[in-house]
Design goal:
Elements (H helix, E strand, L loop, with lengths): L1 H8 L4 E5 L5 E5 L5 H4 L16 E6 L5 H13 L3 E6 L3 H4 L9 H16 L3 E7 L3 H7 L4 H23 L13 E7 L8 E6 L1
Parallel strand pairs: 3-4, 3-5, 5-6
Antiparallel strand pairs: 1-2, 6-7
């Protein structure tokens, strides 16, 4: 066992020590050279970029962080979107999460700032299967019922966003060449079909 811990010690920013009880536990160890320790995370090609194409609203669900990034990268959005999160995505935006309000204003502000700072022209809404917020809102519904509710909520949210941000008469901000797209990612992240699309 000690050989395993010794081999890990050189590769990770923590080491293992034996406590008084004989149980081995991690102890935080500061890397000696922080400029190279996490070099696999570094990407200086992004430093001077000023624009991105999209603002993406996704669920807060921790289970989908890597899957969501992978799927968004696969449709050409790697390092090309601003991210925002709400519980239940369009469910919360539409004010359908019992006991919680204001998510529409929150995301409207994110869209407006994303346009002003980064000149976005696309809004995407990404729902997901097995969403806890939908259980809170609608009770124990079947996967088919959840999908139907998500389609309804995405349509309502997207149409509302279109009224607020379309390039002709958007009530909050006129965004040229605006597109709004809805997706639904599976809980295992394996697929993310398009479920809504509107283009100017």
């Amino acid at each position: 066992m000690s050989n395993l811990f010794n081999s890990l010690e050189g590769n990770y920013p923590f080491c293992f020590q034996t406590s008084m009880s004989g149980i081995t536990e991690p102890e935080v160890k500061q890397p000696q050279d922080q400029s190279t320790t996490f070099s696999s995370c570094c990407d200086i090609s992004q430093v001077n970029r000023k624009k991105c194409s999209t603002v993406a609203l996704q669920c807060i669900d921790f289970r989908l962080r890597d899957n969501m990034s992978c799927q968004l990268n696969s449709i050409g959005l790697q390092n090309d979107y601003n991210a925002a999160s709400t519980p239940g995505v369009s469910l919360a935006y539409n004010g359908n999460l019992p006991g919680y309000t204001g998510f529409d204003k929150y995301f409207d502000n994110i869209v407006k700032v994303s346009y002003l700072l980064h000149n976005i022209h696309s809004i995407i809404l990404v729902e997901h299967g097995n969403c806890g917020a939908y259980t809170v809102a609608y009770g124990n519904i079947s996967p088919e019922q959840e999908r139907a509710k998500q389609l309804d909520n995405v349509n309502i949210a997207a149409n509302t966003l279109w009224k607020k941000f379309n390039p002709t008469n958007g009530t909050i901000q006129k965004i040229p060449n605006l597109t709004i797209t809805g997706y639904r990612i599976s809980i295992n992240g394996c697929d993310m079909p398009e479920i809504y699309s509107k283009t100017y």
